[in-house]
Amino acid sequence: MANDIIHHRDRRSVNPIFNDRKFKLGTFQTNLDYGCLMSDVEGRLKITWPNTLELAKLADAMDFEAIVPVARWRGFGGKLNPAGPGFETYTWAAGVAASTSRSAIVATSHCSINHPITAAKQCTVIDHIANGRFMLNIVTGWNRPEIDMFGVEMLPHDERYDVAVEWLDVIKRLWTAQEEFDHEGKYYKIVKGYLQPKPIQQPFPAIMNAGGSERGRHFAAKYCDLVFIPLGQPDFERNKAQIEAYRRLAREEYGREVSVWTSANVIQADTEAEARRFFDYIVHERGDWEAATFALDTIGLNAKTFAPEALKHLKELFIAGWGAYPLIGTKEQVVEGFTTLSAMGLDGALLAWPRFEDGMREFRDKTYPLLVQAGLR
Ligand SMILES: Cc1cc2nc3c(=O)[nH]c(=O)nc-3n(C[C@H](O)[C@H](O)[C@H](O)COP(=O)(O)O)c2cc1C
């Protein structure tokens, strides 16, 4: 029996991820120690509940569209073990949802270690707490040490996406089916599948995936509302072409429109020289090169796949902001950077700052008004 006192709503009207802002914004990795940083910089994020909540409240007050955590079960070692201590994302999202009122709140789920019935139910609870602002980020897992920790087999890369397809299929049926159902698939068996109440969002909550491989992009284009593209090189035309190709893939192969985002790391100062000096300080004076090397090695980016200079540059970007597109300079240059990202065809970006809280406050006071003036917000 459906519960008729619950006010279900069209997700397009209730989840800000679907609003018509020209350039959407989110925060990234605020549930983990060091945030996106691998460097011992004063003012870096130290993970406590008050600290993570403060960042969520800042994002919410600026009307950011999304607050996106990272599902991480162990850190990257080295001197600092960045991303080691951290909050599990469903429970974190429930707490953040209860304390915010505008941004979409994301829980990030590894399919292979969260049963779809549990996941569907947890997502639903968060969607109720958030009154329709929930979004699910599906990840298939690449970080072998953390998957090994669960004692489950890490399947070959493309097969992980086969699991994700079936996992999501079960979840969507639980979210939408009014009748109980059985499911006998390759990876899951469901007997008399039942889920009530249904999520607030109709027909079901927003979904994102940040797969970067060919298989990952097909999965995201076919099933997700929000997809991601890493901007490796600051090459405008190349990036623009890749973004267009992603939209074309979704449109032509799957008859769908997707929102394409990237992630960016904001390093702002009063002068460009000062901002660049700060980047060097983060990377060369305080950076944890050992942790960055371990993380990149685990991803499969190492001396076998990259020329030495390119690998060094990649490590610098990982130390300063988990490899995100660097927006370095004065507030005007940072805004120019956002204008460029928008002109490339992107719909939004997840942001991080090395000094997360101070950076967000400065962004709110000095930079955000210029973004509004530039017509991006
Ligand atoms: C914005 C963003 C968020 C991501 N969040 C997570 C996460 O929380 N946990 C995780 O294990 N991987 C995460 N990833 C990794 C992706 O889900 C994906 O596995 C990776 O980009 C490699 O693509 P592939 O799986 O298609 O090979 C994230 C990537 C991006 C760009």
In short:
By secondary structure, this protein is an alpha/beta fold. It has 13 helices and 13 strands. 44% of the residues lie in helices and 16% in strands.
Topology readout:
Layout: E1 9-10, H1 11-14, E2 24-28, H2 49-61, E3 66-68, H3 89-98, E4 104-110, H4 116-129, E5 134-139, H5 144-149, H6 157-176, E6 181-184, E7 189-193, E8 201-202, E9 206-209, H7 214-223, E10 226-228, H8 236-254, E11 259-268, H9 272-285, H10 289-299, H11 308-321, E12 325-329, H12 331-343, E13 348-352, H13 356-373
Parallel strand pairs: 1-8, 2-3, 2-13, 3-4, 4-5, 5-9, 9-10, 10-11, 11-12, 11-13
Antiparallel strand pairs: 6-7
Bound molecules: flavin mononucleotide.
Kindly state the number of beta strands. Answer: 13
* Chemical compounds bound to the protein: flavin mononucleotide
CATH topology group: TIM Barrel
Largest sheet: 8 strands, parallel, barrel
